[in-house]
Amino acid sequence: MDPQSSSQISYVFRTPRGKSTVANIPLTASYDTFLRSLLERAAHIDREFDDAQSVNYQMSRLTIGVHRKLVQEAGRLVRRRTDLNRYVENRACQNCDEHTREASYNRTGELDSESNYNCSSCITSFSNSSVNFSNLAYVVLNGKVLGRNEYEHLTQKFSESPSPETVHHISLRVRMRGGVDRQNRVGSKFGGGGVSSEQQSERERKERLRQLALETVDLAKDPYLMRNHLGTYECKLCLTLHTNEGNYLAHTQGKKHQAGLARRAAMEAKLQGKQDVGPSLPVQTTTKTVQRVKIGRPGYEISKSRHHETNQRCLSFQLHFPEIDANCQPRHRFMSAFEQRKESPPDRRYQYLLIAAEPYETVAFKIPNEKIDREEGKFVTNWNEKERTFTLTLYFVDDVTQKM
């Protein structure tokens, strides 16, 4: 970096394509203006290089082929060469007549529209656009990125003590935007597997995200995930089908699955009687059955008789519970043949009378499946706590009784 005057600094830098050039930047220029000037100068140098390459390519095409083809294409190729052959000339700035800069002109004498720039002193007068040049390129000085603070410190240090002997070499680098450049990459080496396509990169990205998700989520504890016989995965909450675990994990973050979870949570909250969710249902009290050691079956006596007036059939059951728990009384119920699991197939002609008391085993008596008379005095139960005997007497409704 060599100072030419008290108001400008000449930067020797290398363009992104490897060409060396010089740019004159005012001391008062901001960091964005500094980057903009370097980008304009680099684009100008690289464009001249491309034009020279195009001219060499056209000349090489003129020397190849038969004479007839050369005559047919000579006029067009020479005309194209004339358009591409520009020369450089110093012209005055379009804003001020004091400074000059290099501008590109073609042979017709017309100024190239792409090189119609102002001088370095008038760069600061440009209207600042919405483009953030720090997002487009960055500058490297002595192996480190020259940021905004470093640039201001460098210009302030130079303005305080300008030194003509100091030379700084900088490099302009363009930021790569939009991911991997798949068009201008070099070829792969032998045995390297080839250059990955967009589909392969997308597949690799999904697999990487799936592995990261599996590290944080344990699918073995997911109550809604089910793997069917086809090897695919099903969501039992939403009744959806998924090809792999990653697809199911993406589904769990979707709107449908989240809405199903919220609906399930609201339903469970209502069953538990929470008032903050909505109108609560009556709380269902569940009693836990305690497993106790059974001491065997109680002793029992069965007697058959008939009523002395109606001649109804009567069954009387008397059971003895000498080891019954304190403050406990035997209980009874009727069970149909289809409820029991002891006899198979069930016989619908019979029903079962069950009598239970702790710590004895529950006993069942097989009786005819007929209607039982529930009138007063026809169905009697009695528990004698002193003798610890339980008596149950029942009468069947006969056809004669129904007719009466």
UniProtKB/TrEMBL annotation:
Signal peptide: none annotated. Coiled coil: none annotated. One of its GO terms (molecular function) is nucleic acid binding. Keywords: Metal-binding, mRNA processing, mRNA splicing, Nucleus, Spliceosome, Zinc, Zinc-finger. Residues 233-263 form the Matrin-type domain. GO terms for cellular component: catalytic step 2 spliceosome; U2 snRNP; U2-type prespliceosome. Its main location: nucleus. It is found in: Nucleus. SUPFAM superfamilies: beta-beta-alpha zinc fingers. PANTHER family: SPLICING FACTOR 3A SUBUNIT 2 (PTHR23205). This is Matrin-type domain-containing protein.
